[in-house]
Each structure stands twice: as C-alpha cells, then as structure tokens.
Amino acid sequence: xxxxxxxxxxxxxxxxxxxxxxxxxxxxxxxxxxxxxxxxxxxxxxxxxxxxxxxxxxxxxxxxxxxxxxxxxxxxxxxxxxxxxxxxxxxxxxxxxxxxxxxxxxxxxxxxxxxxxxxxxxxxxxxxxxxxxxxxxxxxxxxxxxxxxxxxxxxxxxxxxxxxxxxxxxxxxxxxxxxxxxxxxxxxxxxxxxxxxxxxxxxxxxxxxxxxxxxxxxxxxxxxxxxxxxxxxxxxxxxxxxxxxxxxxxxxxxxxxxxxxxxxxxxxxxxxxxxxxxxxxxxxxxxxxxxxxxxxxxxxxxxxxxxxxxxxxxxxxxxxxxxxxxxxxxxxxxxxxxxxxxxxxxxxxxxxxxxxxxxxxxxxxxxxxxxxxxxxxxx
Length: 379
Prior knowledge:
By secondary structure, the chain is an alpha+beta fold. The chain is built from 13 helices and eleven strands. Helix 4 (138-157) packs antiparallel against helix 6 (216-231) and helix 6 (216-231) runs antiparallel to helix 8. InterPro entries: AGC-kinase_C (IPR000961), Kinase-like_dom_sf (IPR011009), Prot_kinase_dom (IPR000719), Ser/Thr_kinase_AS (IPR008271).
C-alpha cells in the first residue's frame, strides 16, 4: 500500500558536484564493493512493487546473507524520463553511510534491467506499523523523529535534498531503529532545484508553486510526518491531488485535541509557508545565496564566535526534543518503543505478499537506449 508519487521529467538544474562535501560532516570514503551478477543470488519473496519494477528478498549464494534487490526495468525508466533520477539515486547511495539510512552494497545490470543491492531491513515499513497502531503516542513519535533529524542533518551537510520523506520510505530494523530508503528523488544541490517531484501530501508549497526549492522542503516534510504519526493521518488530505495542493497552499492546519502544545509548536514552525522562517532552514538558504561574499563573511564570524545557528541545530533545540540525548540517538543506545518480531534473518512476514512477475516481462534495449545506461559503469 502506498501513496502515488509525483515526478516531472528530469531537467537541467544547478547541481552540486558529487564531491561537494561540507567539512562539518565529511562523507565516509566510498566503500569497497564486489561485482555482482544475478547468478550470485537466489531470488526469494517480493517485498514491494513500484513504477519501474520491484524489490526482491534475495540470498547471496555461498555466503547465506540476505539482501534486498531493487530490480528496475530499463525500458520503463526511459519511457518515464527518469534516468537522471535513477543515476542520482545510485550516485548518492554509493557515497553516503549513516545509522538511519539503508546501506547500499552495489549495483549491476543486464540487457533488460538495472539492479541495486541494498541492506535488507526486516521490520517492514513504518507506514504499516502506524496503520496498525492508528497513531503513535508522543514519546514514540519523538523517538522516530529524532532519528530522522540526524539523518536529514547528515544529508543536508552534503548538499543532498531527500525530497520523499514519508512513512512508506522508512523501514524498521529488527533492533527497532529507522532506516530511510528509496533515494529516487534525492538530489545534490548547492542552491535550488525546480523539478516537481515527491508525494502530494508531503510536498512543500514552494515545490507546488515551482519557485525553486532547497533543503527546507525536507523540514516541511518532517512536519507533515510528525503530524501524521501523532494524528494518524496527514495534515493536508483530499481525494484529488489538486485538492491536496490547494490545502497545502492555504496552509491551514487543524490539530486534534490530544496533540500537546510542544508538538503543535514544532509542527507549525516546520510547516511555515514562508520558507525563510521555516524551522531548519539554514541562514544561507534563507538569504537565497544572493550575496555569497556577505554570507561567507557572516558564517566565518559566526563560527569564530561559536554562535553559528540555523539548520538542524535549530530543530534539535526545539522544546519538543528537550529530553532527547542526541549522542544516544546516533549511538543507537536508546531503548526502542517497538521491536518487530522476526523469525530469523530471512523472515519477511512484515511485508505484504505479491505475485511473482514473469521473467521476461522487461524489454531488451538496443542502440542509444542501451548506451544510455553505460553511465552506471562509472561508479
């Protein structure tokens, strides 16, 4: 079960180089990965399906380890003009490593499909757990939100915008922690990007209005997510996507009575229509990077005086997270509120059942179409 995504064709945008890394949060060196082929894996259950293909549980032959194999139909990627997004996904996943982001193990391809080898996260989607529970008590929502704050801070420090935060893209490990998955809409951007993409209920107003958007759209999405965890439904909902967009642009948020004042205040500040006032927006994004000289001088002075503010630090300092030990969050030493029961490393009971697809249901590519995927041989 999933909400429909919105994705426009990839266009030329001002994109940061892949090695544009903030010195405040250096990326781990690219991990050494072995070369895989489909013959290396035993294909097991289908864990999920999507526009381009499906995700299968697989077992690595001769080793016995279990992984998630994302299988993408090349013909569908080209038909929907999503090659750039998939390239960005692979490029970003190959460079990042964080406790609350799914581990990427490698990729390979054949004449029909592109395959991404990922960490298998057994506990299923946060979406499924939330639907079973109806809504989360405050301490559970805070527990999960704190993990996401650290993950978004890590990504933003490297100029990465995630752009698809929602319960369906959050997996629960057998130890009870979250892992962000599906980086199909993630992008490395220094300033702004203009592609309309994401899930309607989670889109920030500046995405809908095509004003250009930056990292602050992820903080907006976090506000939507915290609301949905606490209320059991998103703050902006309509049967028609255009109705959702209108409600987002109107900006009116009605809170159930059981949501406390600290949570309300945080959500309101994350859902600020004015992105320059939105909690989590860093000062250079607030300024629109119109005068880089002044910004660099300002940041240098701030760092020297020890008073650099903005970005994720403002979110962490909000009173809603007043009892959070951020070091313990990153160290994963907190006691999880929920441990998904698993019956072994290959157990997949927390995922829905799907029928198998025919082996030859993807089109073989030739000529320029086949050559378009040679870019994946670069990393």
